[in-house]
Amino acid sequence: MDQRKTVLQFQPFQSAIDVAFWTELGHYKLDKLRLSEDAVPIHGHYSASCQTDVPSILQLERSSLEETQASPSSMGTCEVAGTLYNLNTLDRFKTLDRSAALQAEAERIWQTIVTGEAERHSRLLNRFLLLTFAELKLFKFYYWFAFPALKPAVPFTASPAQSLTAAYGPEAASQLAAACDSWRAPESGPQETSADPFWLLVRTASNGMEARPLTAWTQARAEGEVCLAMADPCNLAANPGWPLRNMLLLAAKRWRCQQLRVVCVRELRGKADPTVSIVLDVELPPLPEGWCEGDQSPPAAMGWEPNAKGKLGPRMADLGPTMDPRRLAESAVDLNLRLMRWRAAPSLGTDRLADVKCLLLGAGTLGCAVARTLLGWGVRNISFVDNSTVAFSNPVRQSLYEFEDCLGGGKPKATAAAEALQRIFPSVNAQGVSLSIPMPGHPISPVELEKVAADTARLEQLVAEHDVVFLLMDTRESRWLPTLLAAAGGKLAINAALGFDSFLVMRHGTSASVPDVEPHPTPGPATTTRLGCYFCNDVVAPLDSTVDRTLDQQCTVARPGLAGIAGALAVELMTATLQHPAGAAAPPPAADPLAGNVEALPLGAVPHMVRGQLGGFAQMCLTGQAFSQCTACSGTVVREYRARGWEFLLEALQDPKKLEDLTGLTELHSSAAAMCDDFDESDEDGEGGAAAGPDRDGQDEWMSL
Amino acid sequence: MDQRKTVLQFQPFQSAIDVAFWTELGHYKLDKLRLSEDAVPIHGHYSASCQTDVPSILQLERSSLEETQASPSSMGTCEVAGTLYNLNTLDRFKTLDRSAALQAEAERIWQTIVTGEAERHSRLLNRFLLLTFAELKLFKFYYWFAFPALKPAVPFTASPAQSLTAAYGPEAASQLAAACDSWRAPESGPQETSADPFWLLVRTASNGMEARPLTAWTQARAEGEVCLAMADPCNLAANPGWPLRNMLLLAAKRWRCQQLRVVCVRELRGKADPTVSIVLDVELPPLPEGWCEGDQSPPAAMGWEPNAKGKLGPRMADLGPTMDPRRLAESAVDLNLRLMRWRAAPSLGTDRLADVKCLLLGAGTLGCAVARTLLGWGVRNISFVDNSTVAFSNPVRQSLYEFEDCLGGGKPKATAAAEALQRIFPSVNAQGVSLSIPMPGHPISPVELEKVAADTARLEQLVAEHDVVFLLMDTRESRWLPTLLAAAGGKLAINAALGFDSFLVMRHGTSASVPDVEPHPTPGPATTTRLGCYFCNDVVAPLDSTVDRTLDQQCTVARPGLAGIAGALAVELMTATLQHPAGAAAPPPAADPLAGNVEALPLGAVPHMVRGQLGGFAQMCLTGQAFSQCTACSGTVVREYRARGWEFLLEALQDPKKLEDLTGLTELHSSAAAMCDDFDESDEDGEGGAAAGPDRDGQDEWMSL
Question: For residues A572 and A506, is the Cβ–Cβ distance under 8 A?
Fold first, then answer.
């Protein structure tokens, strides 16, 4: 052996992390880890070096967090198992006891040496430790790798490296290289051992060299010349890569070997290259007697990766600048939603909300507030229906419009609202439809007939295309047709209406269960078990309330805070309903066996109606059953609509009294009037009956709250 | 007299309305008329014609709605009294009984003839009627004028008109013109009669012509030649202006005169011009005997002004396109506010709100919601303080930001929010200040000291410059300094804080009354009669809660509807407080003698705290008294701050325990700990006392709601 032995130095690993890994880690943190800081098994890989001037790289990629390690690995790729600690805060990241974490990894490696397991699976000699803190709000990832290497009591030394060719001569070197190749990529296909980075090379009877597993050491040593081969990630002419450190300790510990020839295999086009592969004759100082035996602590470990400045410190990957801003916005928006599931509402189904399609009828104060709250909940599909344009008084109360939208006569509200959503969140799927909702009792002139029919057909189509219909208009009667369409289509209808300082927010009972045929409804105010709709408290059909409205009745004369409150509550009512296992059929809290079960109902039980009063800062929940003679949602009306379609709608629009005839309300009125006659015969116009007087004051009836 | 007499035709008035009149009418409608359709006395004016090709114009201007008619009128100007009916709806405007309205005006004129009053004040012969419908949302004004003319039983006839010069010869004509001028604009200054459009011209003894009042008719007629003169708004060579009609009827009725020479005076540079003034010899058919006497109805009237197409119909003034869009937006925004006063809250003081200056500490979800609701209330002065930039997750929840604001690292929130307000409502006075609010317990390094001092000084200045301070931050301890500054400055502080699905909105009790010297505070949890602040429930000083916060604690993990609700309630709480006669010192509802008095409290009584829970859709109002040992608002702390300023603040910021020493809380803790020792001697670390354990979980204490 050469006398000029010097301390053997190993090229450390450098970590190389695919952006996809960070993305995946973000998801993993949000969806699986949440607040856990437990160790997560991950894996990376390295290859035998195949390029000059490229350091030893340990690579992590998207699949590194997947539980099933790719095995057998692709040719020439060595898998490395690792442990990830993702810390919850930067402070935790900074103050974690890193020595302890590293020592724990070293201990695992040491055990594989002591038990001999590493001889059977030499990949166990390589491990890595990864500490991370994911600053997901900013798409920044702080991280620190360690590649634990066990320190021998006295350093290994080696004579200067020679190339394989120089050491063996060209022919023998080629033969040796071929033996390595056939070991690592046998023609019979990858073997279990081929992902292991170390093997033996043994002189054969025919003076050739043959690869053998590490477990063959004792026998091969007895038979004759044997050396160690490694798939070497390093490409330096004088030094081996980092994995050799722990392997040499194994040789010293298990084999008690004091000299060892090591062939560091490097590749060219996937084959061992004898000209860059090197041969090292290593001197292994004998380990002290009893070193690290039994209860003793394992050897000290080292291996923290320096940062980009070459100093011992963490690195930071800032994905922000490299990401498509739209994608950045998308993940940022999802972030807050997923965070809710960490502590507050672990069973929250946020995906259900991203897919739901919401139709907003009305893009005024309520429509804007509802749309914004939907965005906050991650709802991606939002359609507006409105027939007006943005007026100068709108922007200060209708949160999707600006001064510019009012110029030149004002943009159509529906499209302006949709455009605003795109400006807020480019990934939203928003559309605006300028459309007048046909209203019962509003006279339809012959020239308008075609337009009303088209508007009705468009509205029917829109309701059919969406899952939830929000009724956010400013007149009572404009709510009739959408209420009927939602009832007939089994859609969830959420209704919000404002007074001066009071509001009503409610969900309509779902009519998905309305059978197409029903026995003759019992006359009289019988109720069903279904929850009511906006019209269920009425005993008159909706009429035109816009005729002769004064200015304050035409405008939104409401305390400005009201729309924000009612709009937000409407959306929260929707989300609570959708998160309920029974969905739109969710019973009211008093009748809900799941009420109070936080796991089943992450957003709580779902009231039927919420009424609020700003004057007293009061709010209460109410429940009302469906009215079997309701002009909007009763089985009678739904069936008539299903059977006769537009023909029926036109009749109802032109003469709302037809609805009263159909539902039996006319009869009810007659008997009510007759009753009044009995009591007060002088009241001849029949309007004395409380039930018979149409509510025509242009205010919603619940204003008397 | 000439034989070629033909039916005399009169040039009708044309209305000319200054834009300022419409603006004034808008204000009048909103502030005074509101829903009233009562007759409103107004006035217009016309002048003797001074230009060819200009029709007879009756002018209305800004002052036309003022009650005091300008009198005596400026030279050559004839005031005309009129009646305005401003209708509430277009429908009322269309369907009003116009004949009856016109006839009522005619009756008034007729009575002045019958009683002879019109002889004393001939201006009474001219009246006008104005029907309007002000579509204030669109800045459109529908209107229809009538200039009531009484119809004689048989039309008046006249020989062809001659110019004054032609009729009298140049010299006599000039003399006659001078007589008119000295009547209308006597050198002794305007007379009571000079605003009257008619007078007599009487031949004097010296063969000159002299002006006399109409009341001189009988005497003058007896004395000799007399003719009627009028300030004629018409410039036609053959016809007189409209005012002559009713005058001729007066002559026929009162004077029973059958022929009358009329001099229609027209002017040039303010003087009667004999060349364009004309002379008419009018034949007045005798009125039927007993015509319109006693109980009889007055003569039929006519005089509706045709529209621009020359047809009988209303006109419409569309001010929208002519107005500066910014001004349009301003009046539109005021519109909704003033409308509230029509029915809902007649005693609402909206001007108080326009002038109030609001400081919003925090421009996140709450800050945005608060600012938008303030805009809705017409608040014009809004300042934001925030130290962060717009992140990608913000726009969907923070309603003043858009995707664009997040690019390039994100705009500073405070300025981005202020810019957004300008885009929404250009007349707002909004500013953004990027500033970190110093927080107790957050360590201040020596290099930071200067910045913290500067930030504190800036915050002190901002609080001093504003009337209301909104506390809308996301940490507990950032509320301490603003709470103290508001307490020391006697400012109204409104506080809003969010949990996952609960919120707290409160007003701090005002400390304007904190005396500079107070007897030693009684130790122990004595309470004052003042309402509490956010810290009054605490027995520990605020500490750094941001150290080691996990991602969900750093982000706004709240149900998205929550900020909209809490932000709106915070502003409604502010407006209700400001509308209370006691302002910030308003007692809570239970202690408020005005509670329930709608006239005194248009927005209702003012709770101290509103707590809400989205899980149960519940909300309740609470009251809590100030804590005499509060670390933020107690007299002890306020006095210490007033006395020692920054020196004291720095101590408190660096070591919050100093606050506990100052307020006597330390002593309280010791006794609490001692008590615990008594009960559980094994608990030696003294943390067993419920009062002693600092609340460091990063959640606001009210989360346990």
Answer: no
The tokens of B469 are what? Answer: 């301070």
CA–CA distance, A610 with A649 (Å, rounded to integer): 30
End-to-end CA distance of chain A: 102
pLDDT tens-place string over residues A575-633: 999 999 999 999 999 999 999 888 889 899 999 999 999 988 999 999 998 998 999 99
* Separation between Cα atoms, residue A449 and residue A427, nearest integer Å: 38
For residue B376, give Cα distances in angstroms to A547, B69, B332, B385, B523: 27, 38, 11, 20, 46
Does the CB of B619 have a partner CB in chain A at under 8 Å? yes
Q: Which residues of B are less than 8 Å from A343 in CB distance?
A: 500, 552, 557
* Three-class SS state of B429: strand
Predicted local confidence at residue B692, as pLDDT: 27
Q: DSSP label at A398?
A: S
Return the closest-CA partner of residue A636 out of A658, A621, A604. Answer: A658
> Which of B132, B336, B562 would best serve as a mutation to test chain A binding (most A beta carbons within 10 A)?
B336
Interchain proximity A621–B621, CB inside 8 Å: no
| Degrees, nearest 5: CA angle A30-A348-B370 | 85
From B344's Cα to the closest Cα of chain A, the distance in A is 7
Q: Is B413 helix (H, G, I), strand (E, B) or coil?
A: helix
Q: Which of A91, A336, A564 sits opposite B393 (nearest CB)?
A: A336
Amino acid at A142: Y
DSSP helix/strand/coil, A489: helix
Listed residue (A213, A168, A216) closest to A191, CA to CA: A213
Residue B155 exposure: Cα atoms within 13 Å on the Cβ side:
8
Residue B189 burial (10 A CB sphere; 0-12, 13-18, 19+): exposed
Give me the domains of chain B, ranges plus CATH numbers. 6-154+307-322 (3.40.140.70), 157-292 (3.40.140.100), 356-584+604-662 (3.40.50.720)
3-state secondary structure (DSSP) of residue B29? helix
Q: Give the H or E element holding residue A263.
A: strand A259-265
Nearest to A544 by CA among A367, A434, A694, A702: A694
pLDDT in tens, A322-375: 777 888 788 888 777 777 776 667 777 777 788 899 999 999 999 999 999 999
Quote the CA–CA distance of B536 and A19 in Å, as a whole number: 49
Q: Rounded to 5, what percent of chain A is helix, strand, coil? A: 35, 20, 40
Contacts of residue B311, defined as CB under 8 A and 6 or more positions apart, other chains included, come to: none
Cβ contact A480:A649 at 8 Å: no
Q: Residue B625, CB half-sphere, CA atoms under 13 Å: how many?
A: 10
> How is residue A23 written in tokens?
């993305």
- The residues of A annotated with a catalytic role in the active site are 555
Contact of B561 with chain A, judged by CB distance below 8 Å, is answered with yes
- The answer to whether the CB atoms of A336 and B397 lie below 8 A apart is yes
Torsion angle (degrees, nearest 10) of CA B660, B663, B664, B668: -60
Q: CA of B553: which chain A residue's CA is closest?
A: A339
A70: which DSSP letter?
-
**Entry pTM:** 0.72
**Interval A57-86: pLDDT, tens:** 898 988 898 876 544 445 568 889 999 999
- Strand-pair partners of B7: B157
Find the helix or strand (DSSP H, E) in which B7 lies: strand B6-7
Q: What are phi and psi of B323, to 5 degrees?
A: -90, 150
Cα-based angle A587, A589, A590 (whole degrees, multiple of 5): 100
Amino acid at A426: P
Longest Cα–Cα distance of chain A, Å, equals 132
Look at B552 and A137 and tell me if their CB atoms are within 8 Å. no
Those residues whose C-beta lies under 8 Å from the C-beta of residue A609, and which sit 6 or more positions away, are A504, A505, A506, A621, A622, A623, A624
Q: Which two tokens stand for residue B379?
A: 């608040």
